[in-house]
Amino acid sequence: MTSPAPDHDDLELAYLQRRQVHAQWAPFLAALATELSAVADEAGAAAFMRATGARVARQHPLGKLETLEELELRINAILDRMDWGWTQLDDGVDHIVITHGACPNVLSDDKDGVWPGLMAEVLAGAYGAWLSEQGSPGRVTACLDPRARPLVFEHRT
């Protein structure tokens, strides 16, 4: 018998109580996001950030895992070390649903509000690469709403 999944609000609160985004990065990341949005079109900026996320995933390989639960545990260990929040993975009918909470996607210096969408692309790239490493035939990992809390992604073929 499996225990019920923890409530997203409880997971987010517990995570945020243990971690705090360091203020030294907020101005830099906000400036980076604004500059990237100024010099690249939306598709180009998204592709760049997805590629960056895939590179992060390749720098933190998971190895072959047998179950979705093992995959979730391994990804959560990596996310925890990077202070990037937590994830829950669930089987959909024809896709994998990825819920990502406590995402570092709010920057007080991001006056233009571009960082949440870019950070969602980083995560989409990372999740896509990790699932590909496991042999997933999925070709698209997309965030349903980059301003939602928690973020929800779908990994589809």
Key attributes of the depicted protein:
single chain; four-stranded antiparallel β-sheet; alpha+beta; about 160 residues; about 50% helix; Alpha-Beta Plaits
Give an account of the 3D structure.
The structure is a single chain. The chain has 157 residues and is α+β, with helices and mostly antiparallel strands. It is 49% helix and 15% strand. It contains 5 helices and 4 strands; from the N terminus they run H-H-H-H-E-E-H-E-E. It has helices spanning 8-18, 26-39, 42-59, 68-82, 115-133, and strands spanning 86-91, 95-101, 140-143, 151-156. A 4-stranded antiparallel sheet has the order 1-2-4-3. A hairpin with a 7-residue loop joins strand 3 and strand 4. The model has no long low-confidence stretch (mean pLDDT 89).
- Might you state the CATH topology name? Alpha-Beta Plaits
- How much helix, percentage-wise, in residues? 40-55%
The tally of beta strands, per DSSP, is 4
Rg estimate, integer Å: 15 Å
Strand order of the largest sheet: 1-2-4-3
**CATH classification class:** Alpha Beta
Overall form: globular
- The average pLDDT is 89
Based on the coordinates given, report the CATH architecture: 2-Layer Sandwich
